[in-house]
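# nightly structure sweep
# worker-07 picked up a monomer target from the shared queue
# config: single-sequence mode, recycle default, output format = structure tokens
# input follows
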Amino acid sequence: MMRAARRRAGDGGSTLELARALYALASAVARSMPREMSPTSVATLSTLDRLGPLRLTRLAALQRVAQPSMTVVVSRLEAEGLVERRPDESDGRAVLVVLTGKGESYLQRRREDRAANLAISISELGREDVAALRKALPAIARLAAIEEPGPHETGSAESEPLALAVEGPPH
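# output follows
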């Protein structure tokens, strides 16, 4: 797999070096925050925030976990009032998992806390480094959009530290 990544980079490895640096940053940000809940639980909340109500089977596929495992995650989140189950109006036999207001508030607080912690680190950089980061913002935003699975993809925000660290803006 590493050789394939180097071939795709096509620029003598500088793309791979950049990827390693971004991965290290994302991992450091993810480790810097207290762990209030499992990465799968956070990823599940973020997925519901991004994509809206989903069936449990779809959530399990998106998070790349077995359906029984996702049932446990959703049950815990439901007990905490962060999600709720509602009937699927398009199929009376099915249930949708929906993010609650409390779940939205939790994600917003978590995102703001992570951004504030990262802002402290950024403030320790020199002016030139901060200017370079500002200049790179559009590319970083595009990269984050590529890394986030869309409604028809089966990636996991939990499996990618960049997505987990940034968690993307709410949609």
